Amino acid sequence: MKALEKIYEGKAKILYTTSESNRLIQYFKDDATAFNAQKKGTIVNKGVINCAVSSEIFKFLETKGIQTHFVEKLSDREMLVKKVQIIPIEVVVRNAVAGSLAKRTGRPEGEKLSETLVEWYYKDDALGDPMVNRDHIRIFKWASDAEMTEIEKKAKKINTLLVPYFETRGIQLVDYKLEFGRSPEGILLADEITPDGCRLWDMKTKEKMDKDRFRFDLGKVEESYQEIFKRICK
After folding, report:
1. What digits encode the pLDDT tens for the residues 10-49?
2. What does the angle CA 20 – CA 52 – CA 83 come to, to the nearest 5 degrees?
3. Domains and CATH numbers, the chain
4. pTM of the entire predicted model
5. Could you give the angle at which helices 46-63 and 221-233 cross, rounded to 10 degrees?
6. What is the number of alpha carbons within 13 Å of residue 154 lying toward its C-beta?
7. Alpha carbon 67 to chain centroid, angstroms
């Protein structure tokens, strides 16, 4: 399967058509952005690591009954995926307080939540991906009530699978972003699951192992991504 026409280029990935109308190639870039693209840079081999990590996680989730857009890993940077209509909502799943949740609530970073917290954000870079609620989503017809209920159920099931998956690799899954898309098969988990969109902390040292290292100039960015790769893919 070869990449044909470029149909979309985002901050971290490019999508290409293929010879099959219902299949796309998702190409992972080394470009890194933060704070709604106000900060830009490059993380060496990030695309290779993210393609490998996301492929492994999607394959794991598929074995547990989670339908995803993943078909196969084609190369170091290319993933063959099912074509979906992306629902313009980022679903953020939180297991502990960090990032914007700490800022909004004044709670200490790292505080464990008593239950899984699911938040909704409207996907719009120009607006800074604002936080929204289910009424906004329904009223503006970004998704139906039934779709939101299904997505939330899927997100919580994914969380029950991923928390122990990461723990067995010595990683605390603090929070992470999920995206979903409509397809003839139903609503599928789409996009990626990588250190770009997850907060991943070493379970023993609590050292950050994700894009926060780039975001806040913490150093050892490439080394942290490589460590995630080693724990997930080897």
Report:
1. 999 999 999 999 999 999 999 999 887 779 999 999 999 9
2. 25
3. 6-82 (3.30.200.20), 85-218 (3.30.470.20)
4. 0.96
5. 30
6. 23
7. 15
